[in-house]
Amino acid sequence: MRIEVLIAQASAKSYVMMNTNEIKALVSLLDDEDKEVLLHVEQKIISLGDTIIPYLEEEWENNFSPTVQKKIEELIHTLQFDSLRSRLAGWKADGGQDLLEGMWLVATYQYPDLPLERLRKDLEQIYYEAWLEHKPSVHPYDQVKLLNSVMFSKLKFAANTKNFHSPGNCMINIVLDSKRGNPISLCVVYMLVAQKLKLPVYGVNLPNLFILTYKTTEAQFYINVFNKGIVFSKSDIDNYIAQLNLPASDIFYQPCTNMDIIRRVLRNLIISFEKTGDADKMEEIRLLLNVIAEENE
Predict the structure, then answer these.
(1) Are strands 209-215 and 230-232 parallel, antiparallel or unpaired?
(2) Residue 45: what are its φ and ψ, rounded to 5°?
(3) What is d(CA 173, CA 175) in angstroms, rounded to the nearest whole number?
(4) What whole-number distance in Å separates Cα of residue 264 and Cα of residue 237?
């Protein structure tokens, strides 16, 4: 009778109204042998939302049952993942205007406590270093060379060729800390700094390689950030596409959207988890990708 009463009481209350003892009692039922009771308890905890996570973390620390601790860990992950899906959907609904926020959302899959403000501060410091060397009056090529000098010579950002498929290459906090990344993550950092300098630099979705373009009404050229910011022309892309035996398409030459970038980051992350043999994480990232999928996908 105690179990039924407790679940009924919990169902009638939000976590705000539930006191610590009631939450503790609810968590204590996670080792109940009755599978139906266990299912009801888990569903109720999940229904309370991610705001109950601090209480679950406290219970994890104070509980000495490995079985209960494991179930608490699983519940916390479920709550965090559901919250991430909701926030990612909100980012899409707002038009995906803030690319850094999109990258932050991806990173919170692995680092749920990561503050967005920390990333903003890290990028602000990189921007400051670039601003000190920036000369708006010089030719666009020279502007890019100056930014390259800061990013690759002074700050030592570089391609992570040793661990190309590491999931960390898709996590912007890891890229900012290690100064190593894959083509798209390095491009994102470079582009965010360039745009803060008021440079017309945007992402371009090439097959097997993500690059940037410097584009104005007067001129356009391309930047391979994965190769230390080397500058190249449209004819180089023509040759690259021809070598891949692919038909020409505007998407290989023109700027893509922030949404396109986050979709590609998630696809890269799926490949990373495929390489590590983590099928569960692959499936979860696919679910995140579905949240921001194009209508025709």
Answers:
(1) unpaired
(2) -60, -45
(3) 5
(4) 19
Tell whether the model's pLDDT for residue 49 goes beyond 70.
Answer: yes
Alpha helices in the chain (DSSP H): 2-11, 20-28, 35-47, 53-62, 66-93, 99-107, 116-133, 140-148, 172-178, 183-196, 234-243, 258-275, 279-291
Concatenating the DSSP letter of every residue in 96-110 gives: S--HHHHHHHHHTTT
| Domains of the chain, residue spans | 2-93, 99-291
pLDDT tier for residue 294 given thresholds of 50, 70 and 90: confident
> Residue 230: which H helix or E strand, with range?
strand 230-232
By the 8 A CB rule, do 216 and 137 touch?
no
Count CB atoms within 10 A of the CB of residue 155: 16
Q: Identify the residue with better confidence: 117 or 53.
A: 117
Judging by DSSP bridges, how do beta strands 158-159 and 180-181 pair with one another? parallel
Would you place residue 18 in the very low, low, confident or very high pLDDT band (cuts 50, 70, 90)?
Answer: low
Task: Give the β-pairing of 209-215 and 220-224.
Answer: antiparallel
Task: Describe the crossing of helices 35-47 and 20-28 by its angle, rounded to 10 degrees.
Answer: 140
pLDDT tier at 228 (50, 70, 90 boundaries)? very high
pLDDT at site 162: 92
